[in-house]
Amino acid sequence: MQIYTILVMSIDREEIFWSHRLSNTAGRTYGPSMSDDVHKLHHAVQIIMRAFKIAEANVQVAHRELAFGPPEIQTMRFVAENAGCKLADLAEHLGVVPTTASSIVDRLVERGLIRRDRPETNRRAIALALTEAGADAFSRIEAEELATMQMMLDALAEDERAPFVTSISKIAASVSSQ
C-alpha cells in the first residue's frame, strides 16, 4: 500500500492541513523501518511547519483581515485560474461533494467575492467568476503566499534553488496525479 501525504500550508488562520490518500502499492512497509531519509524529511517538514505557523501571525495581514479558510482560498484560486468554471468542476478539484462546494461558493458570493453567471449558450448552467473585489482579495493573498515561498528559497544558496523547485514540483505532480 503506497501512502503519500500532500502538505497544503494554509497561511489563513495559522492552520496547516494534511491530506492523506491510500492507494495500491508494491509491498512497501511504512513505520519504524523506514529509511533515514524519510525520518529526516519528516523532521524537517515538522520544523518548517512550526516556523511558518509562528511567522504567519506576523506577516499574513491579508489572510487575517479576510478571514479565509483553506476551502475559500482554494476555491478562489480555482475560479481565478478557471474563470467560467462549473460548480461540478470546482467540487471535483476540491475533492468534495457539489453541495459542499456550493456552500463554500455561497459564502464567497455573500461577501461579494465570487459571482454566478448564466452563460448565454446554456441558460441552465452556472459559471463561476471572481468579482473585482474577489480578484483584489485573491491578489493580496497570493502576494503573501509568494512572499512565504520566497522566504523558503532565501534559505538556500542561489545554485540550490532550481534543483529544489524541480524536486518539489516533481513530488507535487506525482501526488496530484494519483
What secondary-structure arrangement, pairings included, does this model have?
Blueprint: E1 2-10, E2 15-23, H1 36-59, H2 61-66, H3 70-81, H4 87-94, H5 98-110, E3 114-117, E4 127-130, H6 132-154, H7 158-176
Antiparallel strand pairs: 1-2, 3-4
Helix pairs in contact: 3-6, 4-5
Overview of the molecule:
This protein has 178 residues and is an alpha+beta fold. It has a domain at 67-138: Arc Repressor Mutant, subunit A. 59% of the residues lie in helices and 15% in strands. The chain contains seven helices and four strands. The strands form two sheets. A two-stranded antiparallel sheet has the order 1-2. Strands 3-4 form a two-stranded antiparallel sheet. Helix 3 crosses helix 6 and helix 4 packs across helix 5 (98-110).
